[in-house]
């Protein structure tokens, strides 16, 4: 935070440009300052979200994926494989113009082309005390980028891809998403998908929600902005913990990836650490942020040793937890808060030491590493 302030947040822009240049970035949890943080760090101003800055430069779509351990209970027991949510974080309600209609009158939308006569659309004739109104948009370019990122993710995981909309109601708006995805799939991805034995399909959002609940997981779910906002948290809770969730930004070129943990800065634990108190902080999502970035680097560079190391580290994380060594949050998932004792979990450093010990054992069978 201090360096972002000292550089007037230029360091965030330079970081995004470096990710674009080298095609891989690994991002730690960052602070989006509020009034209290401005005072705490004596900041020049309330800097914007670094995630927003980075995504505006790189484009792409954020995909969340659960890290599954057999002994960690899931609220949806049938989800034995991850469901990867891709949220189109552009436009729609999040860039909308909304207002209160104070009384009787007509609300219209007007499209004024750069050359030509304006076209008006009647939204509603209000009576009585009025009501509310909203106008929102998206762009073909953004939808196309969303489609490419989603199709690339499907190829990367070799899992089927589903796009959910409500095109039966929003025939033009959601229909545009459906049509663009289908066009790009037919022209550029169908052959690649069929070669991998996977598929793309459009579904109505209500049908997709029901299908997801009944499924065992193992697919990519491309969501419009609001749907993705809701479903990403819903699915994360279904798997048990944000501490066991990866977040990967896939750019439309299919070559550029930024990986991070899905959770934030874990401020409460940091305050305990500052006071010299023991913490039991789950590092798994942060470790997987590194391994997913390194795995992409291994693919780009055709680096077999880096791939072996990254896959071994991921396997060690899961195997260690399944062997009963874990942080407090996971122990609570298994036994419940009221039933957890200090003997049920390791503190932050004990858990990291256990992971390191198990990684050394696993890598000992690979002499080059």
Automatic annotation (TrEMBL):
Positions of the record's site feature: Critical for catalysis: 94, 166
Entry annotated with the keyword Manganese: yes
Residues annotated for D-threo-isocitrate binding in this entry: 32, 49-55, 64, 87
EC id: 1.1.1.42
Cofactor: Mg(2+); Mn(2+)
Single Gene Ontology MF annotation: magnesium ion binding
Highest taxon of source: Eukaryota
Gene Ontology cellular component list: cytosol; mitochondrion; peroxisome
Swiss-Prot/TrEMBL keywords: Glyoxylate bypass, Magnesium, Manganese, Metal-binding, NADP, Oxidoreductase, Tricarboxylic acid cycle
Domain (Isopropylmalate dehydrogenase-like): residue spans on this chain: 1-355
Main EC class the enzyme belongs to: oxidoreductase
Co-factor binding details: Binds 1 Mg(2+) or Mn(2+) ion per subunit.
Listed GO biological process terms: glyoxylate cycle; isocitrate metabolic process; NADP+ metabolic process; tricarboxylic acid cycle
Binding-site positions, NADP(+): 30-32, 37, 214, 264-269, 282
Binding-site list for Mn(2+): 206, 229
Family per similarity comment: Belongs to the isocitrate and isopropylmalate dehydrogenases family.
Name of the protein described by the UniProt record: Isocitrate dehydrogenase [NADP]
Species in which this protein is naturally found: Betta splendens
């Amino acid at each position: 935070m201090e360096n972002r302030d000292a550089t007037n947040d230029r360091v965030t822009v330079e970081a995004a440009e470096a990710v674009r240049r080298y095609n891989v970035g690994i991002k730690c949890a960052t602070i989006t300052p509020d009034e209290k943080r401005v005072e705490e760090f004596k900041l020049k101003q309330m800097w914007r979200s670094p995630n927003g800055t980075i995504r505006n430069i790189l484009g792409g779509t954020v995909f969340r994926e659960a890290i599954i351990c057999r002994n960690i209970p899931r609220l949806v027991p049938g989800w034995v494989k991850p469901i990867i949510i891709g949220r189109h974080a552009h436009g729609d309600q999040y860039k909308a113009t909304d207002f209160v209609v104070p009384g009787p009158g007509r609300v219209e939308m007007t499209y004024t082309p750069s050359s030509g006569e304006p076209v008006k659309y009647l939204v509603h004739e209000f009576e009585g005390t009025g009501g509310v109104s909203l106008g929102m948009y998206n762009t073909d370019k953004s939808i196309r980028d969303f489609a490419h990122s989603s199709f690339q993710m499907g190829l990367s995981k070799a899992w089927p891809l589903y796009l959910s909309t409500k095109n039966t109601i929003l025939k033009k708006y959601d229909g545009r998403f459906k049509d663009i995805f289908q066009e790009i799939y037919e022209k550029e991805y169908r052959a690649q998908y069929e070669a991998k034995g996977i598929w793309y399909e459009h579904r109505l959002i209500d049908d997709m929600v029901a299908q997801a609940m009944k499924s065992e997981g193992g697919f990519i779910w491309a969501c419009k902005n609001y749907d993705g906002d809701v479903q990403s948290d819903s699915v994360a809770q279904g798997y048990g913990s944000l501490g066991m969730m990866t977040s990967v930004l896939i750019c439309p070129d299919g070559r550029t990836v930024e990986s991070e943990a899905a959770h934030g800065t874990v401020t409460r634990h940091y305050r305990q650490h500052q006071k010299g108190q023991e913490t039991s902080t789950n590092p798994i999502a942060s470790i997987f942020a590194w391994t997913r970035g390194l795995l992409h680097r291994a693919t780009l560079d055709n680096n077999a040793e880096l791939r072996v190391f990254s896959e071994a580290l991921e396997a060690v994380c899961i195997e260690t937890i399944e062997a009963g060594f874990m942080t407090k949050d996971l122990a609570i998932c298994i036994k419940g808060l009221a039933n957890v004792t200090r003997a049920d979990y390791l503190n932050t450093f004990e858990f990291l030491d256990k992971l390191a010990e198990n990684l050394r054992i696993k890598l000992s069978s690979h002499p080059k590493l």
